[in-house]
Amino acid sequence: MGTLLVGDALARAEAAGEPAVLVEGMPGYYPRFGFEPAGALGLGCPYPVAPEHWMAYRLPAYDPAIRGAFAYAPAFDRAA
Predict the structure, then answer these.
(1) Model's pTM, two decimal places?
(2) According to the model, what pLDDT value does residue 80 have?
(3) When you count CB atoms within 10 A of the terminal residue's CB, does the N or C end of the chain come out lower?
C-alpha cells in the first residue's frame, strides 16, 4: 500500500508542476523510489534531523538553483 501512496503523491506533485518532493523518512525505504539526500542538493531541513532521514525526489521541473532551508506552511505550526 505504501508503494502506491508514494507513487501517487509523486505523480500528483509532477502534474502540479512542483520541482521536488521532500520527506523526512526512513533511509532504507525512500531511495527505492529515487529519493536522495536533500542536503546534497542544498535543501535544508527546518529542524534538527539526521541528514540521512531528510530526502528529496527531483521532478522534471527541478532547478538546481532552488536551494536553502525548507519551510512548512503556517498551518503546520498549529498542528498538534
Answers:
(1) 0.86
(2) 56
(3) C
